[in-house]
Amino acid sequence: MSDMNPDKQHDTLNYTYSYTDNTTMDQNITSIYNESIEKLQTESVNLHKLYVNIYTIVVPIIAIVGLFGNTASIAVFTSSFLKRHSSSVFLAALAFVDNLFLLTLFLTWFDQTASNILSTTIPCQIVVYVTYFAAFLSVWLVVGFTTERYLAICHPLRAPMLCSNRRQKIAVTCLVLFAAVFYNFAIWTTEAVQYGPRKWCLTIDDYYEFLQIVTWIDTIISMVLPFFCIAFMNCRVICKAAIFHKKRQHCYKPTDSMKVKRNKHLTNKSQMRVTRTLLIVSSLFLLLNFPSHLARLYNIIVAPVSKEKYEKFLQQICQLLYYSTFSVNFFVYALYGKHFQKSFWLMIRSFKQFFGCRTEHRFSSVEKSTKITLTGMRSNTYRWSSDLDISRC
Q1: Nearest alpha-carbon partner for 92 in 178, 20, 169, 153
Q2: d(C-alpha 145, C-alpha 86), whole Å
Q3: First and final C-alpha spacing in the chain
Q4: Which regions of 151-214 does DSSP assign to beta strands (E)?
Q5: I want to staple 325 with a disulfide (CB 3.0 to 4.6 A). Which of 51, 195, 257, 288 is the partner?
Q6: Non-local CB neighbours of 319 within 8 Å, separated by 6+ positions
Q7: Distance from C-alpha of 366 to C-alpha of 377, rounded to nearest angstrom
Q8: Please, are residues 293 and 227 in contact by the beta-carbon 8 Å criterion?
């Protein structure tokens, strides 16, 4: 028989059962936690695989379609009668800069999916530098032609003096020089680093604090400031055009009509079509850039290192929308710009006639005619087929 007091024995048994229950509960909690972690990791891996599949398919489509479209836009704005248009300098420069960005995007995609071509420091630095350079110029060239439309609609008396092709070329040159100087940090703060089985373009750790400051400056000058400028000027242009046409509708006398007919950019249908097309381009630019800009501000201000799987996935999708802004302008011009449509089809016809004429000239059959002269001697003469119109060449 045990000499232990019954009360003490009861307490000991309670303690043993309590300890056993707590241990079992801790094991269950640990098991549930481990299962949750495994589930989250599985979901994260699945989302990452989904994004990789989307990225692998979508990015080359954006890059290739955009390169062809922007090249056609450059040809139209520089070689047709549209080169005399007030916004042609900004639009041609925008198409060229968008091509630079799409080229670096395609190289990055090829490096990540096909072959590690950015495995040395110099190509890596060039790609990062051109990406910064082209992205900055793209947004400020949109600001440029939006400003031109704003002045033409809201300040028509100043527009002829401020919106000449010469001043636009000067503005584009200043933007190029500023971007070339300001973004030179991308060259000496980036290097190719071995990470796992391949090399990646990464920033040098020694410049982390410096890059934090530069990131804030870049966010302001390439995102916040131009975004509000474009939004403000678009709203002003839309309001001005709406007020003008509302007044025109309420004019009952010829003298009243003459009072409001002061701005040729509002009364001329051709100019209004140009204004509408450029408004669509700039508004679409804002729409496609806004999610990416919002995600970037969220990363900088709220969560510098986002670990939520859905947040990261949404940010990556927003980045794909941002990439699409560099390839959609050609379709807007082709759908809404009648002058662009005419110039584009005229250019296509001229190419067809030029290459068709050269092909016909090269491969046209040479007809051989045999003629018998009065003396009975046979002579061979050759003539080109008569359906060849040399004037087309």
Answers
A1: 169
A2: 9
A3: 123
A4: 190-195, 198-203
A5: 288
A6: 292, 295
A7: 22
A8: yes
Q: What is the DSSP string of 312-363?
A: HHHHHHHHHHHHHTTTSHHHHHHHH-HHHHHHHHHHHHHHHHHHHHHHHHHH
Q: Is 203 helix (H, G, I), strand (E, B) or coil?
A: strand
Per-residue pLDDT band for 367 (boundaries 50, 70, 90) equals very low
Distance CA 340, CA 330 (A): 10
Which pair of tokens denotes residue 200? 């990646």
- Please report, as a single letter, which amino acid is at residue 37: I
Quick one: how far is CA 4 from the chain centroid? 84
What is the rounded distance in angstroms from the CA atom of residue 219 to the CA atom of residue 212?
Answer: 11
Residue 20's identity, in one-letter code, is T
Quote the pLDDT of residue 72: 93
Residue at 287: amino acid letter: L
Residue with the bigger pLDDT between 266 and 321: it is: 321
The torsion angles phi and psi of 368, rounded to 5 degrees, stand at: -105, 120
**Sign of the CA dihedral 126, 128, 129, 130?**
positive
Q: Which residues of 249-258 are buried (b: 16+ CB within 10 A; e: fewer)?
A: eeeeeeeeee
Q: What integer pLDDT is reported at residue 217 of this predicted model? A: 92
Identify which has the larger pLDDT, 259 or 197: 197
Q: What is the pTM of this model?
A: 0.76
> Is the predicted pLDDT of residue 24 greater than 80, yes or no?
no
User: 139: exposed, middle or buried (C-beta count within 10 Å: 0-12, 13-18, 19+)?
Assistant: buried
